[in-house]
Structure formats: structure tokens, C-alpha cells
Specification:
This protein has a domain of 61 residues: Orthogonal Bundle (Helix Hairpins). The longest helix has 24 residues. The chain is globular and about 40 Å long. Helix content is 75%, strand content 0%. It is built from 4 helices and no strands. With 89 residues, the protein is mostly helical.
């Protein structure tokens, strides 16, 4: 499986306040980004997998909503996570 417990803890430790801080917006955005990158790679190989495509679109929407929330609450945290994850060109 591509997303193990250790991988999640590493993502939350790097982007959240700690490895057990699974509720922070930054940690959730980082986890969604990791999953989106994995699904994108899967869809490049399996173009007709429409269920995965739907899941990808839903994940992108969830990440977009969290980024919008972070923009409203604290613009500096938003800019930091976008720069750290490389979400904007």
C-alpha cells in the first residue's frame, strides 16, 4: 500500500505541529497533495479508470476548500504551505 502509517506520521510531523496532529489544515493539505500525486500517476497509466478520476476530482475539491479556509484565516500560513508543497507555478 502506498500510504502506510509511517508515511502519514512523516507527513504530519513535517507539515503539522507534530506526528499526532492530524487535524491541522496544513497537515491535511499535505496529505491530500500526497494522495493527489499518487492518483495522478495512476491515471497516467490507466486512462479509463473513471472511479479513480472521480476520487481525484473530489480530493482536489477538498484541498481547494482547505486552502480557501486557510486564506481567510491566516494568509501567512497559506503562503507558507503553498510554497513548501509547490502548489502554484
Amino acid at each position: 500500500m502506498y500510504l502506510t502509517k509511517e508515511t502519514k506520521e512523516e507527513i504530519f510531523a513535517k507539515h503539522g505541529k507534530g506526528k499526532n496532529d492530524t487535524g491541522s489544515a496544513e497537515g491535511q493539505i499535505a496529505l491530500f497533495t500526497h494522495r493527489i500525486n499518487h492518483l495522478t500517476g495512476h491515471l497516467k497509466q490507466n486512462r479509463k479508470d473513471y472511479n479513480t478520476e472521480r476520487a481525484l476530482v473530489k480530493l482536489v475539491g477538498k484541498r481547494r476548500a482547505l486552502l480557501d479556509y486557510l486564506t481567510k484565516v491566516d494568509i501567512l500560513r497559506y503562503r507558507a504551505i503553498v510554497k513548501e508543497l509547490g502548489l502554484r507555478k
